[in-house]
Structures are given as C-alpha cells and as structure tokens.
Design brief:
This is HEPACAM family member 2. It is found in: Cytoplasm; Endomembrane system. Pfam families: Ig_3. Keywords: Cell cycle, Cytoplasm, Disulfide bond, Glycoprotein, Immunoglobulin domain, Membrane, Signal, Transmembrane, Transmembrane helix. By secondary structure, this protein is an alpha+beta fold. Among the domains are: 114 residues, Immunoglobulins (Immunoglobulin-like, Sandwich), CATH 2.60.40.10; 88 residues, Immunoglobulins (Immunoglobulin-like, Sandwich), CATH 2.60.40.10; 94 residues, Immunoglobulin-like. It is built from seven helices and 31 strands. The strands form seven sheets. Strands 1, 3, 6, 7, 8, 11 and 12 form a seven-stranded mixed sheet that branches. The protein has a six-stranded mixed sheet with strand order 24-25-31-30-27-28, with no helix packed on it. Strands 16, 17, 20, 21 and 22 form a five-stranded antiparallel sheet that branches. The radius of gyration is 58 Å and the shape is elongated.
Length: 462
C-alpha cells in the first residue's frame, strides 16, 4: 500500500507540472530594463525605466513593483493591471507609476529607498487565451550624498627626521557617503608597501618610518558613485636627512682618482658638496705626519700652491646639525709642472701656423696676378690673331720703319738665335708686331728686313 501511494503521488506531481507548463510561459523577450543598477542622489528623483516589447493593445497585463530593503524586509509598492493601478498608501506621495510601459518613478530619494526593486509582470495575449507569460526583473538602487572637498590633516605638523619619526595623514570630508580615498605624492598614486599603511577606505595613511624619499607634496582624492574625484589642497612633508653623496671637486689642475695635481704658483679652489636637509656645516682639515688641524670652515677651500713644499692630504667633513650625522671625503694635493713639453710645442706650432698660411696665400695670389698680366700682354697667339684680323687696306699700307731713306738699311744681315725662353719671347713680341703678312711662327729677322723696303730697285742704284 505504501509503494502504491508513492507511485500515485509521483504521477500527480508530473501531471501538475505539465499542466502549469501549458498555462504559463517564462520568457525574456517581452520587456527590457536598460539598467539593472542605479546610483541615485539623495533628494533627487530616480526613474526605473522599463521598455515593453509587445503591443499592449493585444494583451492583458497584471503585475507588481515591490521593494526589498538591505535589512531584508519586503514591501509591495504598486499593483497594477491594464485598467487600474493600486499604490500602497504609505508610498503613494513619493511614487509615480508610468503607464503604459509599467515604469516606476521615485520622486525624491532618501536613504530608506535603497535596496532591490522587483518587477513581476504577467502577460496574456488575446489570441492565446489561457496562455500566461511571466516576466520578472530586479533593479538594484543605491542612494548617496555627493562628496565635498576633502581636507588633509598631518600629524605631526612640523618637519620630521628620517628613520626617527612616523607621520600620519588623514583625509576627511564634511559630506558624502560611501567615500573612497586615494593618496598621491608629487602627483604619483601611492599604494601599500612596507612603510605605507592604509586604513579601510584609505582615509588614513601612516608612513613608518619616514625616509628621505618621502619628502614631497601630498594630496588626497575623495570620490563615491555619484561624485567624480574631488582633490584636496596639497600638504608639504618636510624630512630632515643627510649628508649623502659627499664629493670634493675643483676646476683647476688635473684629477686622478682622489689625487689633485696643480702647477706651481697656481691658486686652486675646492668645493665640498653633499645632499642634505638642512644644509650641512663644512670643515676643512689638513693632515700632515701624525697631526691634523682645521684650516677653515665653509663649503669652499682656497689653496696657494707655492706654500706647499710637498704633497699634502686634505679632508672635508660635512655635518648635519639636525640629523646629527656626518660624512668625510679625503684627497691628496700634489704640486707639479703641468702644461710643458708637448703642450709648449703645440702652443709654438699653433702661433707659427697662421703666419705661414698667410704668407703662402699671399705668394700664390701674387703669382696668379703676374701670370694673368703676362698672358694678356705678350701672348703670341693673340698677336698673330690681331694681324690676321686686320683689314686688307691696312695690310697694304707702307710700313714706316722710322728711317727716311731705306738705303741706309740696305745690307747683309745674319740671324742669330739665342736659346732661352725669355729671348724668344722678346723676339716674337718685337718682330712679329711689324709683319705685314706672316705665314708661320718661324719667320726670321732676315725675312722681316727683306720684306720691309717696298722701294723699286732702281732707286737704290741711283
């Protein structure tokens, strides 16, 4: 009997499920909610928008809007059909049901309006009597107060010494809910580290211990879901540190490692520098034999090399009066002749070189000018071309040799050739200029004289 009862119960359950499935259909295609999360501002209205994707004239609808608070209590706000709407009397002054798309507007948000809003909608189309389509959606709503400008408080408010103090920075706002804070140093976002510790929400930053690199400008940024980041005013964190990276430098002489070499009689200056806050106090100490003595105080040392008989050791000591830390840098000063030998030869050569260059250039220019002058005045080819280019009338004119009577020039002449470029140049210039007609460059003086007198032979006999 017990087995038969269990079988009957199972059969009835299956039949019930089949019956429900034939009368109710769940779908997600008939309504659409653009946003399932809304961040509302306290005191402002908020619309829970719903888009219906079916023709309302062809269907009957029935549904509810309900509100579940963060505490878990649930309240039905609105019950509606296509023809009527019933709003809970406790909320009707703050709610407005939007027909025909079943949206809901909260007129003025308060903190009690936070939570989940649930829409349950049944749809029955006229051409499908008995078939009910059920749609359900849930919208989450938060209500926040906009954030005011944040303010930073630093503790302690004065400068601190590195490795000996901690600093606490606190960021606060007068207004705002669900505020999230961020911290920046010199506009660089800070995160947790071995020395940087944040409280929940990052409202407080603890730096423990403070180091040199923590020195800078700090500010915080406050934001929440309804407010963009609001920046606070900057706060300076001053850290006393050092001395670090102590160095001794000089612009004179030659440096090799920790040894400075200067010329005899040269005045040398040395600078002692270190990274420190506040600035260091400097002391220069001379070390000789087994004794030391203070030369001067301050970052600058002046040494006259002629007062040094031999190499001498010096020491620069930097001391920070606040951190009570000090550092030392030691160096050796040697007096020796620099700038001799090769440098002297180079200097002499450099002084002679400009004079030699000027002399060569001047001689070259003078030679070019002489060459141009000679070519323009005594060039054989140019003389011959001037004779060839004369008019015929000028060529036949009687030549005047400067003698009234040609008989005085009559006689036997002998051509004498003297080798040499200068003589040949003179002969060509004097003889070729008197030619009436020249056949070639080898015309002799005898030929010139023979052609010169144009008087008939009988006049010579008389």
């Amino acid at each position: 009997m017990e087995a038969t009862g269990r079988t009957a119960l199972y059969v009835y359950s299956v039949l019930f499920i089949l019956t429900v499935s034939t009368t109710t259909e769940v779908s997600s295609d008939f309504i659409h909610i653009p946003s399932l999360v809304h961040h509302g501002i306290e005191g402002k209205p908020l619309l829970l928008s719903v888009e219906t994707r079916f023709p309302l004239a062809d269907a009957e609808i029935q549904g509810t809007w309900s509100h579940t608070r963060p505490s878990g209590s649930r309240t039905t706000l609105v019950t509606f059909t296509k023809q009527a709407t019933i709003t809970d009397m406790m909320y009707r002054n703050n709610l407005r049901f939007e027909k025909p798309n079943v949206s809901l507007t909260i007129k003025k948000l308060g903190q009690d309006d936070e939570g989940d809003y649930h829409l349950s909608l049944n749809i029955e189309f006229h051409n499908k009597t008995g078939l009910v389509i059920k749609e359900e959606r849930t919208v989450h709503v938060t209500v926040d107060v906009p954030v005011s400008t944040p303010v930073i408080e630093k503790n302690p408010s004065y400068a601190v010494v590195e490795d000996k103090a901690n600093v606490t920075l606190t960021c606060s706002v007068e207004r705002g809910t669900r505020v999230v804070f961020q911290w920046l140093r010199d506009n660089i976002l800070l995160g947790p580290s071995d020395r940087f510790h944040f409280s929940r929400g990052k409202a407080t930053l603890l730096i423990s211990p403070v180091r040199k690199e923590d020195k800078g400008t700090y500010h915080c940024v406050a934001s929440n879901p309804v407010s963009p980041g609001r920046h606070s005013r900057s706060v300076e964190l001053n850290v006393y540190y050092g001395p670090y990276n102590l160095e001794v430098n000089s612009g004179q002489g030659l440096r090799t490692g920790e040894v400075f070499t200067i010329n005899p009689g040269e005045l040398a200056f040395f600078e002692c520098q270190a990274d420190s806050n506040p600035p260091n106090s400097y002391v220069w100490i001379s070390k000789s034999s087994n004794s030391t003595h203070v030369i001067t105080e301050g970052p600058r040392l002046e040494v006259l090399s002629y007062r040094l008989a031999q190499a001498e050791e010096y020491l620069c000591r930097a001391f920070n009066n606040v951190t009570q830390k000090q550092d030392e840098a030691q160096f050796t000063l040697v007096v020796a002749s620099l700038g001799t030998g090769k440098e002297k030869h180079t200097q002499e050569g450099s002084s002679v070189f400009p004079l030699a260059a000027i002399t060569v250039c001047s001689l070259f220019i003078i030679g070019c000018m002489l060459l141009v002058f000679l070519r323009r005045t005594c060039h054989p080819k140019r003389v011959l071309m001037s004779i060839y280019n004369r008019p015929l009338s000028e060529q036949k004119k009687p030549h005047r040799s400067g003698h009234e009577d040609a008989t005085e020039d009559f006689g036997i002449y002998e051509f004498v050739s003297i080798p040499g470029k200068m003589e040949s140049a003179q002969v060509s210039c004097r003889s070729l200029a008197r030619l009436e007609s020249v056949q070639d460059m080898h015309t002799t003086i005898y030929d010139v004289i023979r052609h010169d007198p144009e008087t008939p032979s009988h006049s010579l006999l008389e």
